[in-house]
Fold Threonylcarbamoyl-AMP synthase.
Amino acid sequence: MAVKKAARALAAGGVIAHPTESVWGLACDPNNHRAVQRLLQLKDRPVAKGLILVSGEERHFAGLLDPLDERQLRQIHTTWPGPVTWLVPHCGRVPSWISGAHQSVALRCTDHPFTAALTRAFGGAIVSTSANPSGCQPARHKYQVLRYFGDTLDFVGGGATGGRNAPSEIRDLISGEVLRPGG
């Protein structure tokens, strides 16, 4: 029931909070510019930083993964599904409000049961960024999300986080650089 309610909120252009592998995330429909603007405003996050797209289904990233070679895909598959976010070239296939000032887009195939079910119910990848105002610690519990955002969100729920200690690791597929170590 919670998955369907959250998916309906996303489809209606809402911004929701949901648990991820390690922290709570704020999510919206990446194709809805107004929803993305609202999410960025809630976080006080500049659009230039870019956002992460998350799904429990790798097929939701097909258009972005198709240009990759076998070696690159094998590298990604060693960590998916799981808490590793990969920066892959977007080649103009995502809106600038997702990629920000970057030539790459951040993708993660999640193994969190609620978030994976949410993306299946929604029918595609979602924006998912840590649930906190910029400069504050990411929320690890629902009560922290509510303390940060009160009743400004369209849905808050989905159970507990996956219990990992750090946000997802971020790796650049082209350079091999680890931009944010994982837990």
In short: The domain at 2-180 is CATH 3.90.870.10 (DHBP synthase). The mean pLDDT is 95. The beta strands are 16-19, 24-28, 52-55, 84-89, 104-109, 126-130, 155-156, 169-172, 178-180.
